[in-house]
Amino acid sequence: MARYREAVCRLCRREGLKLFLKGERCFTDECAIERRNTIPGQHGAGRRGKIGAYGMQLREKQKTRRVYGLLERQFQRAFAVAAKQPGKTGENLLITLERRLDAVVQRAGFAASRAQARQLVLHGHIRVNAKKVNIPSFLLNPGDEVALVDRMKENAMVLQARDLSGRQNVPSWLEVDREGFRAKLVTLPKREEMTTPEINEQLIVELYSR
Fold it and tell me: What's the rounded Cα separation, in Å, for the pair 167 and 92?
């Protein structure tokens, strides 16, 4: 499966804010944004200035894509799904992204980052309604229950992720049992509840409408 293989801290520096791609490191002084908040590259220090309308739209799309750990084609497919649904396309897009299995696994605290969450799913360590699901893009519906297999509950990476998740609030659309490594999608996310990092989804819609 295609995936981004370069240094993820470069992505945060390119967007100029924390995308929380490195788990615990993002909460320490070792975070790239804390140490060197400049655009990557030889001339990065002098390149962050005013950008035009297209540039703003592109950066918003890139930021959102990187937050959820998607490649360009994967993001385009998610947008196509959102565009076919009734309501606002931008809101539908974010709701669709939050319904992904890898996103829920990370939000529930089973993994410290989206990359770790995707790894858990791909390796068959996640159950949805007691059935094995190894597709990170699998979309959950309200009432679906997600659980970690028993053999992984003592895994050092998983335990560290659980401790890290204690510093963060559980989204209101999830019901989480951190000790039992179980989570339930109670309802679909609401736009006003999605705040980290801040995303202007209308710019993404405008970009794809060109």
Answer: 28
